[in-house]
Write a structure and sequence with these properties.
It comes from Pseudomonas bharatica CSV86. The protein is α+β, with helices and mostly antiparallel strands. It has helices at residues 3-12, 15-20, 78-95, 125-141, 161-168, 175-193, 195-201, 257-269, 273-278, 316-323, 345-360, 370-384, 401-423, 427-440, 446-456, 461-478, 483-506, 511-523; strands at residues 25-35, 59-61, 67-71, 100-101, 151-156, 206-208, 220-223, 226-228, 281-282, 285-286, 304-307, 327-333, 391-394, 397-400. The protein has one domain (3-523): Creatine Kinase, Chain A, domain 2 (2-Layer Sandwich).
Length: 527
């Protein structure tokens, strides 16, 4: 353990400081496809009974009309965050009729590319903006890729914790800048160590063969309908996913907030020749918001993002530049197909200890090729993380994954212990022990269990996933929401539909001008 981490642990373990750790906030976003009874993509519109995808704060859609996204509030107790997530699932299932929520990250057998419905948000300018943005994604990356689902874990440390550290360490800078640089340091450590999350929680070692649409690949056949890699943890996070030449040169290396926001701002304002050739309109219809490397900053695909809650009409970069980083969003987590909500409390407890370790451990700048080494380690683990004797690179030297993982867990243990002391429990230590068992025995990892279940049942990936989807639906239906909670969700759904109608009735101004103003807002930011 570094001297810095030691000092910080001792400071946070004292008196009132310890209770600060009970004020970390946790929010979860879970995406999942709606599928038919026979496990095909549902091509029905977003169910009206779930409310408006544009204005509902807990239930929306992501890329496709069929790709639901459930969003919890940010709460101090992750057990309550998960309860909120489960309640959203229970409500959704009560409104889906004969449709199911697809259990894993990799999609069900998909229809022809052009038959995957793009999410529709109504006729308001902001609704149309969201729709055209998705048309642009279809044009740039294809619709198939956008049907991959994941879990995003949002995490923040209490704002009072940062000045405490700064003053104890004789740091300088105002609260906002110190907090932002501390979150950027967390992100650098996350880049160094996130391969561990892929090993422990990766759950997509196989996929439906039709997903690749006949493109060349290096996967093996599991059966006639399924492709896989025998040692893979997360094909979702491999280079099978987003192949973006435009984004290839875009690697913000997280050495400070200004360089991060700058690189994104440039990407949103820099034309990319192949997109320029297509243009923004075809036959008088919008096909993409602009012809730049990114249409908007959220198009940048990364495993973790610095975030700040935005005001109405404000863009994510504007919020970061104006008010600094408020929390981080972990974006590389697969949905665990064995769990009804895709994630459970032991995983959340471990993530908290892991992220606290990333935040408090020393985090030198990423230089001399370390950025590339982080990416290589990550990609190696997603494709062959369970391979016996697999070697990664640390400081340019080979190191066995198993040895490095055990060492990391030993370094995270004091953070788990600190969190347990603050909460008077042993849940973080127990969650850590569960992960240590997976390092000792790769058969305990979700990726190995997916393949073991498919083998035991002699079934394809799609058959396995549908079976799990049916089990989860049965579990969620068996215990419906209490009447008042069901009524609260019904009321939220109605209110969101009314809000969308109000937006559409009161809309003023032409959509083309609206897009122009939206584009101009990013160019007006100067660091």
């Amino acid at each position: 353990m570094s001297e810095l981490l030691n000092r910080r642990l001792s400071l946070l373990g004292q008196g009132d400081n310890l209770s600060l750790l009970k004020q970390c906030l946790h929010g979860i976003e879970r995406e999942c496809l709606r599928v038919t009874e026979d496990g095909r993509l549902a091509q029905t519109p977003h169910p009206e009974a779930l409310g408006s995808a544009l204005t509902h704060e807990s239930i929306t859609t992501d890329y496709s009309e069929s790709l639901l996204e459930f969003i919890t509030p940010a709460l101090a107790d992750p057990a309550q965050t998960l309860e909120s997530l489960e309640n959203i699932h229970r409500f959704a299932v009560s409104k889906l009729g004969s449709e199911y929520l697809w259990s894993p990250s990799m999609p069900c057998p998909l229809p022809a590319e052009e038959d995957i419905p793009i999410a529709w948000y109504g006729t308001s300018n902001i609704g149309q903006l969201k729709y055209v943005y998705r048309k642009g994604l279809a044009l740039r990356y294809g619709r198939t890729m956008q049907c991959i689902a994941g879990i995003h874990y949002n995490f923040s440390l209490p704002e009072k914790l940062w000045p405490l550290l700064r003053d104890a360490e004789g740091g300088s800078g105002d609260d906002r800048d110190y907090q932002s640089s501390a979150y950027i340091a967390l992100i650098r450590n996350f880049r160094r160590y996130s391969w561990l999350l892929m090993y422990l929680f990766g759950a997509s070692p196989a996929l439906d063969a039709g997903f690749l649409r006949g493109r060349p690949h290096q996967l093996e056949s599991f059966d006639a309908d399924t492709l896989f890699l025998p040692w893979a943890t997360s094909l979702r996070m491999s280079d099978l996913g987003y192949q973006s030449n435009a984004q290839a040169g875009l690697t913000p290396c997280y050495n400070d907030l200004a360089s991060y926001t700058d690189s994104l701002r440039r990407a949103v304002a820099t034309p990319y020749a192949p997109y320029v050739e297509i243009g923004t309109h075809k036959d008088g219809e919008w096909v993409q918001l602009n012809t730049n490397i990114l249409q908007i900053e959220n198009e940048y695909y990364s495993n973790i993002r610095p975030k700040r809650v935005t005001y109405t009409g404000e863009r994510p970069i504007q919020a970061l530049v104006a008010r600094g980083i408020q929390y981080i969003e972990v974006r590389c987590l697969d949905i665990n197909p064995f769990l009804p909500t895709g994630i459970d409390l032991p995983q959340a407890r471990f993530l908290d200890a892991f992220l606290l370790f990333c935040a408090l451990e020393e985090s030198p700048l990423l230089q001399n090729g370390e950025c590339g080494q982080c990416t290589d380690n990550f990609l190696k683990v997603v494709k062959e993380g369970r391979r016996p004797g697999l070697q990664l690179h640390r400081d340019g030297q080979p190191v066995e994954l198993k040895a490095w993982a055990s060492e990391l867990l030993a370094r995270i243990a004091p953070l788990a212990e600190l969190l347990d002391r603050s909460q008077g429990s042993d849940e973080h230590a127990r969650a850590l022990a569960t992960q240590a068992a997976k390092v000792d025995d790769p058969a305990l990892t979700p990726s190995a269990q997916v393949l073991a279940s498919m083998t035991a049942h002699q079934e394809s990936f799609a058959a396995f996933a549908l079976r799990q989807s049916q089990l989860h639906a049965d579990y969620l239906r068996k215990e419906p929401l209490p009447a008042e909670e069901q009524a609260r969700f019904e009321s939220l759904a109605r209110a969101s539909l009314e809000e969308q109608a109000r937006l559409e009735q009161q809309e003023v101004g032409d959509f083309d001008l609206f897009v122009g103003a939206y584009q101009a807002s990013i160019l007006a930011i100067s660091n």
